[in-house]
């Protein structure tokens, strides 16, 4: 396996990309397998059209000339250009008109989510295509490192889900107070504040 990885990296670095990969829509990146091996190549996870179609898998081309497909069960993560995606279990549990999101092994299904912040708190974005309008939708979720619970951060154009976030961040009253005062402009700011001011 190591020999295969070394050849992959050497080929990737030495052969001009415009000659080796004539395929459109593929970008530089890598996948991290379940064995923690990193394989470099050219990847794509969506169509380039205005009404984008986001794949449920990532497609990869390398020196082997054939396209490989990796599903969330096949890899730990992948990176395309400056975007990182992690494979995680995701389950939406509904009880008494309340929706709870869980990320626990064996519960729900494995999906890819874009990771934009990683610390004591992780910020994930669920990306999918709106079936009616055909446009891309991005829904942010927070997940604490030591917890299985995930919480949806915003409710569309209505901004932060303040009541739900207040429950989620009960361990940081200062953050909750600032949340209700309109201190945070977006999920990234809130995540950074939690990492630097909360315990």
From TrEMBL:
Signal sequence span is 1-22
Q: Which UniProt keywords apply?
A: Signal
The name this protein carries in UniProt is DUF4468 domain-containing protein
- Species of the source: Marivirga sericea
Lineage per the UniProt record: Bacteria, Pseudomonadati, Bacteroidota, Cytophagia, Cytophagales
């Amino acid at each position: 396996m190591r020999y295969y990885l070394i050849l992959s990296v050497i080929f990737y670095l030495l052969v001009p990309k415009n000659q080796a990969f004539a395929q459109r829509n593929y970008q530089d990146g890598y996948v991290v397998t379940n064995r923690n091996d990193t394989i470099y190549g050219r990847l794509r996870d969506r169509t380039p059209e205005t009404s984008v179609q986001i794949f449920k898998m990532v497609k990869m081309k390398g020196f082997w000339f054939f396209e490989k497909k990796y599903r969330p069960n096949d890899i730990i993560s992948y990176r395309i250009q400056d975007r990182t995606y992690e494979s995680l279990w995701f389950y939406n549990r509904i009880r008494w008109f309340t929706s709870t999101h869980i990320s626990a092994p064996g519960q729900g299904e494995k999906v890819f989510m874009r990771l934009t912040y990683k610390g004591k708190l992780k910020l994930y974005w669920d990306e999918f295509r709106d079936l009616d309008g055909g446009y891309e939708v991005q829904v942010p979720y927070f997940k604490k490192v030591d917890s299985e619970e995930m919480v949806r951060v915003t409710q569309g154009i209505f901004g932060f889900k303040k009541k739900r976030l207040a429950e989620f961040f009960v361990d940081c009253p200062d953050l909750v107070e600032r949340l209700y005062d309109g201190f945070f402009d977006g999920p990234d700011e809130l995540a950074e504040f939690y990492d630097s001011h909360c315990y």
